[in-house]
Amino acid sequence: MKTIIRKNCLLKLKNMSADEYKRKSDCIRLRFLETAEFIKAETVAITMSRSTEVQTRTIIEACWKLGKNVVVPKCNPEQKTMDFKKITSFQQLETVYLDLQEPNPFITESVNKFEIDLLIVPGVVFTKEGYRIGYGGGYYDRYLSTYTGETVALAFELQLVDQLPIESHDIPVKKIITEEREIQCNKQD
Fold first, then answer.
1. Which of 21, 80, 122, 179 is close enough to 27 for a disulfide, judged by CB 3.0 to 4.6 Å?
2. pLDDT digit string (tens) for 15-46?
3. Residue 189 lies in a domain
4. d(CA 173, CA 150)
């Protein structure tokens, strides 16, 4: 079920024109930079976006201009864990599997999860309650199980659905920012 939902949404994302992608990414960036979560955060955890994901490079540049710390995940595929490392330049990244850009571990330092004020959680599909389907590795579900800071997802409206199959280990994000709105997600405790 999750595989079909993920595949359908990725197809919709791939069908977006370059102009539409840029315009919507810019709207999401501007909306995100005005959130209280972003303004208060000293350290922001964010992934390097790939083709169909909301553009994050310009968000990272905005963080640096404002003097915020930027941490990017380095994945460990054997354990399916992530280690966030501080970057101060895009030159500190290397391209690994699946065109993913990650911090070069030899020139970047790890940052403890309790030092991260805001975690931008990627995903393919989201509900308004903050539940998500990611890319299938479970990296973020494991990380979120012990993360206590703020969580925000950046998504295009077309990535929102009414419901998803939810499993016991799924942890919703607290807020979703789209090109049209800011959604405060309801906790389903």
1. 179
2. 999 999 999 999 999 999 999 999 999 999 99
3. no
4. 8
Q: Tell me how many domains the chain contains.
A: 1
Strands 118-120 and 43-45, by their bridges, are: parallel
pTM of the model: 0.93
CATH of the domain at 58: 3.40.50.10420
Tens-digit pLDDT profile for residues 89-137: 999 999 987 778 999 999 999 999 999 999 999 999 999 999 999 887 8
CB 93, CB 102: distance < 8 Å: yes
Say if 41 falls within a structural domain.
yes
> In this structure, how many other beta carbons lie within 10 angstroms of the beta carbon of residue 81?
14
User: What are the residues whose beta carbons fall under 8 Å from the beta carbon of 90, sequence distance 6 or more?
Assistant: 57, 60
Range of the domain at 31: 2-184
